[in-house]
Every structure is written in C-alpha cells, then in structure tokens.
Design a protein that fits this description.
alpha+beta, Serine Threonine Protein Phosphatase 5, Tetratricopeptide repeat, 2 domains, elongated, disordered N terminus
Length: 246
C-alpha cells in the first residue's frame, strides 16, 4: 500500500492507492474549518512536505472551490505524516508563482539547492554578491553612505549568508546616526552568524549613543561573555556604568 493509502481512504478520487505528488491539492478539517494545501515539493529524505497554504473554508471543498481559493501562506514545511485524515482534492501544475515562498525558504536554508532550483550558478551568484560588497566598501571610504548601503543590501539579497555585508551596512547606518536601524541589522547578522562579539558590542554602542544605558550595559556584558578580555567592551561597559551612576 502507498504511503498515503490509509490517509486518503475517504479522498475524492477513484484511486484508493493514490500517493500525493507535486501539484496535488488536498485538505483536512480542523475545528470546523477546511484547510487546503498544495504540495510544491516532497523532500523524501527528511519526510517533509513543502506546501502552499490557502485560507480556510467554512465547508468541505470540491473541485469547484479551487478557483476561489485565496493564498494565506506561500510556503510551509510540514512533516509528511502531519496530515492525518486529509483528502485529495485535485491536481494542478506547480507554477513559478506558486514556488516564490519555497524559493525564499531555500535561499535562507540551502543556498546551493536554491540556485539549482532557480537555474543559477552558485559561484556566479556569490561572485556578483562580492562585487557589490567591494563596491560598497569603496563607497563607504568616500562617505557615500546611502549608495554603500544600497550595494551592501544587494550583496546580502544575492547571498543571504553574507553577514559581513549586513554588519558593514549597519556601520554605515551608525555613521549617519541611524542607531535603531543599525541595531536591527546587527540582530539580523546574529541570526546568520552567532555568536559574534562584533555585533553584540556594536548593538551596545548604538544603545549608548541613544543613551539607553541599561540596554547598553546588558549588551557589553553579552560581548564580554563571548570574550572576557575584549578591551572595547570592558571600556564601554565602565563608561556606561559611570553614566548610570552620575
């Protein structure tokens, strides 16, 4: 019996042994609502369905409901055994528009697979990202911060693991007094590359510039947890405590 032989014993199909394939739409009932999904990719290695999620319906759908479906989420990875009691609805070609959420997900978690899926050469994409990074670096030296930020952004968007581009974009924002924006960039960098004493310390420096002394103190302490001998963190922590006590 196929993988979904039991799951789809009551499905709307004449093939009682049908196993879901890419492009199949199926649904399940949850708390009185009917949730419809489209299978975009089946990762058999990790037993995961990558699905497109539609807004729930108030009644059990049939084929006539397909054209009225509204997308709620462009991508969700769900264990393939997580759809107990689901029913097959219909089959439809997987379009590039359907895959936009899946591509974004892949770009963050498996860059090589993302390039393969989108027909790009990994080395060429990374090389292009590096070119924008170098251009931004020179623009920063020329104090053309907005242009530098734009190029660091392109570098990161091309290659989402490029935390150095995010850090340098944050430094440009610090150079122009955009402290809160810089903090958000350093937090993004930490999502890619953690622990990072550079990012933790720099967040503290931004808080200090904004005179948010308690937050600054906590950040410098975080930095010192990474490297207890980091001189700048020690100096800035002492300065922050002095300001708090003044």
């Amino acid at each position: 019996m196929g993988l979904f032989g039991n799951l789809f014993g009551n499905k709307n199909t004449t093939d009682s042994e049908k196993e879901l394939v890419e492009g199949d739409l199926f649904y399940c009932e949850l708390k009185g609502e009917y949730h419809v999904y489209k299978l975009l990719r089946h990762d058999k290695t990790h037993e995961t369905f990558h699905v497109l999620c539609y807004e729930p319906l108030p009644k059990e759908p049939d084929a006539s409901a397909i054209e009225k479906l509204k997308i709620m989420m462009y991508h969700a990875p769900i264990a393939s055994n997580g759809f107990q009691g689901s029913k097959f609805l219909a089959s439809s070609k997987v379009s590039k528009d359907d895959l936009q959420g899946y591509f974004y997900y892949l770009k963050q978690v498996n860059f090589k697979e993302y390039c393969r899926e989108t027909g790009q050469n990994t080395d060429e994409v990374i090389s292009k990202a590096n070119s924008h990074y170098k251009k931004a670096y020179y623009l920063t030296d020329e104090k053309k911060y907005d242009e530098a930020i734009a190029n660091y952004t392109i570098a990161y968007e091309l290659f989402p693991m490029f935390f150095e581009a995010v850090d340098n974009r944050a430094f440009c924002k610090m150079d122009t007094g955009r402290w809160e924006d810089a903090i958000e960039d350093f937090k993004l960098s930490l999502q890619i590359n953690s622990p990072s004493i550079l990012a933790e310390f720099s967040i503290g420096e931004c808080y200090l510039k904004m005179r948010k002394l308690e937050q600054a103190k906590l950040q410098f302490e975080k930095a010192l947890q990474i490297d207890p001998d980091h001189k700048l963190s020690k100096d800035f922590l002492a300065k922050t405590i002095s300001l708090m006590n003044s």
